[in-house]
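Page 37, top half.
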Amino acid sequence: MTQILLRGSGRVRARLVARARPEAAASLSHSAQRPLPSVPSSTPAGAWGLSTVARAQPWRSQLVARRRFASGIPGGSPMERYLKLKNDGLINPDPRQESAMAKLDDLCLRIANYTPSTSRATPAAKLASGGGGGFFGGLFGGGSKEVKKSAAAPPSAVKPTGPRGLYLWGGTGTGKTFMMDIFHDAAPTDKKRRVHFHEWMIDVNNRLHRLQKARASATASADDLVAQVASEMMGEAWLLCFDEFQVTHISDAIIMKRVFAVLFERGAVVVATSNRPPEDLYKNGLNRPLFTPFIPMLKDFCEVHDIGADVDYRLISSNNGEEDMRVYIHPNTEKEKALIERKFSRICSGQVLMHEAQVEAQGRRISVPRSAINSRVAWFDFKDLCDKPMGAADYLAVAAAFHTVFIANIPKLTMQERDQVRRFITLIDALYDHQTKVVVTADRDAITLFEVSEEDRKTSVADEIFAWDRTVSRLTEMQSTKYLSEAIRRLDPSDFLGQFTLKALTDEDIKQMWLRYDADDSGELEMGELRTMLEELLERQQGHSNLSDEAFDASVSAIDINKDGKISYEEFEQYLGNYTLIETSLTDPD
């Protein structure tokens, strides 16, 4: 058991006990050496997605631009769901989005009675590149000139036999993820998976690695293993919804070409979002000619649609001047530095400890440059955590002491900063395992933050290179609404409400409160959820949570304006924006 003392200006501010078992700390200390975890087949379809706070539109669009709101809308086709949001005033009219939604709506109709083939017409041998070179040698074409030449040849001429999918591309913040999530939730099949493309590629690589280790005979070709992976995936889901479709590594480029050839041939239907058209995928990448045959195949099986929207909904400011709701903020210019400072000041309610605090773990003291006075929120610079000789136990102590951690100025990383990379991987493991909310500024997005040459990636045995994919995965998930909602809901009421000035709640505060109290993600507060909120507010105001039936009824009458027995976000927002109304409704009548 690790004793943690949070100290400030020589006096004890809080005493916490981190139940960090020695074996847990040991596991974290070796986390960079573990193989990448497989994504289990039972992973919820949206668990890895990026319908996230990181890229979401501002609140009127954010309220529904994420999966949790789309899934809360009563049934209907994708277009019906989209139009309901528009008619309710929750999103702005956008003809370009409606055009894309019409295509998604049509696809939803075409897959309604669709059942893909379970057999494969083209034998795996026809896709093989031949030649030696082991598993990856098979994928890359082995060693002979003839093999290398054939690797760049077009795949077998597989043509669609079922519904053609859709490839949505356009600039950032134009609603691609939002629309795909509505489609995914409305799609009339249980055999569907919604996943960030990077996560899916990690899953593919893990499955290939598992099969390679388990195969009984060395005669099995790389294409045989690819076919087995595709078969597994088709058994789990034939409708694949990919967010952020992109290619960054030549190994991924080759593997995905092979996997998709089998998936498409067996009847998989793909819906994908991307910031670039198919022709620009893996542009200027190493050995790109090995990948280019995939592009016409993708266009055969997916209609390509340019959203062409010229509005970035993420950049529409809310009334209090908050530019966006990102928690992974990049690039790290003066504008982004000012943004994270505002976020920190807001969550601390402007009350920041002016003296350095300390977290104590196993006899060592970890300096905390800035922290909130009334809430367990801390601020570190990247150098504070990763330039010093710190380990898993230190990071576990930080994760246990604070529910929200700000990390500023994460630089581009290379193998020249191997120690910092290793510590950062371990830090993210610790914060993720404690479900800590993390807000960062970084020079680059998570995928490109650690720059490794293809030569190093192929030849290096450094654990950091292989563990980084897990770190990207976790940084991605830590931006998701699902992760952030769960982090908010697990806080003690005092910790949660201690972040806010109830007499002057900002729009951002109200959004955070909605995420906490709409516990079933239905898009409405039911009476049980409302009672929980009122009891916690009463505890904060009056020191007890004994909410009488009379006070509850009075509060319901004040909040439920249309008297339908449920609380909409607009009603919730209006109630919390009037502190006098809160005080009056929670006061027992004489």
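Page 37, bottom half:
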Amino acid sequence: LACALLCVVGEAVEDGGAATGASRQLRGFASSASASEDGGAIQVWPQPARWSRGETVLPVEAGPTFFRTASKVAPLHDAFERYTRLIFQHKTADTPGKQDDILRGVEVHVDDDAEDIPQLGMDESYALSVGANGSAKISAKTLFGAYRGLETFSQLVIFDFETGVYVLPGAPWEIEDTPRFPHRGLMIDTSRHYLPLASIYSIIDSLTYAKLNVLHWHISDDTSFPLQSKTSPKLWEGAYSPGERYTQEDVKEVVMYAARRAIRVVPEFDMPGHSTSWCTGYPELCPSATCKQPLNVASNKTWGVIEGLMDEVTGGHRSEPAKPSGLWPENFLHLGGDEVNTDCWSKTPSIQKWLDERGMTAKDGYKYFTKRAAELALARGRRPMQWSEVFDNFKGDLPAGTVVHIWKADTSVLEVVKLGYDVVLNVGYNARSWYLDNLNVKWDSVYTNEPCAQLPTDKLCSKVLGGHGEMWGETVDASDLQQTVWPRLAAIAEKLWSPKAVTADPSAALPRIQRFRCLLLERGVAAAPVALTGRATPPHPAGCASLYDQPLLTI
């Protein structure tokens, strides 16, 4: 065997063995994965927690029942169909042969196949075993773990264009895997540019390829309010146009589509700032016609609209296993709270009077608003998420259970967790930013951003739930979303999934992210070139793994 011992936390594995006759150089988009070229490494992205491998190249025979299970639940069988299509994209003229050492299928065992809505802390662990004799098995405690195991297996199989057959290099494989952080995601912004449903479904599919598990949906902002509300039906008059809206049935379909891929959908309604679009249909929610934000803290109408919206979003109570509640059964509700300028409150006589009667300053009014909104969410079984500024201003006065979403470099992660709050981290606008609208920040800089860098102990690090790539939508719509997000989001995904010890060196990860970019393209995801800036286009003809560090040769 190339690796006699289990390669704990993905330690580098040296493969000094000669390739077998079946493992001659494999050609095609993923040639870097061939047994004769990869030096005994693992090509899976993100890298699994523990793995070992050998040197045998197994022929793989595709079939309509390639994945097999005793489970009868539809989502698992739907996943089998998806991965059969993803893996076996090329038609093969011949079967690999009749010898015994052919991989003809994978057994999938799930301890508990309950079709639950994914929530924070869902069990995504799995084990994958591929024998040199052609046996293969995925074992998982939940459907969520089974989906992750299917993705890993799919990245081990490649097509050999010379022989016209599929092969799996490196058998026998033993993989045991679980994520480092439980919350790993992407934010999309459907206020600054509307994203059609087809675009949202496509981006959800792409998240699964990197084992991400959260779609943070920033659904409203100053620029538009595209969501249907039945309690406040004029809210979506704030949409860009009647055709750029989401019905409540649309939301239900997106949430279910994501759930069947082990992805949580966390909605965000930014308040009290970033909210002028609310006032298109309900002008009374704004301080005045000429001074439109923050939302009017003194108006009962404001709180009536917010409470009605929360009732629709949450269903009024916490989601439990087999008992989802609300349009978004997700038990987190993002309430924004960032970049609030309270000048309009001070300039509006009725609001200033309301503040004076309560002995409040405008800043006190800001605190009152964010705290009351958080308490309304908690009363409906949702943990509120709020941006850095809410903590920066009010520290330990935030309600217990609040999740602090840190985007500002001067927000102290250590201070937040010492006060007992959980953190979602994606500091924006610096040289290692996870804000994907920072187009000049390349993947390797993103990869060096360690979520627990400010925390001295593992216990404190456990308060960091994870992070996001944030795709703010000022210059992004359906025409350029994927190539702005990918492949830089892959760097975030591995940082949040894989053990810390194996994500310290971007140069070591480079060959795998090159191959992963090729895989994304093969699956129809418009990922930009790895070594260039975000959304960059290829400067000249080259292969999918090119770093474009050599000039184009002309004849």
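Margin note: The mean pLDDT is 91.
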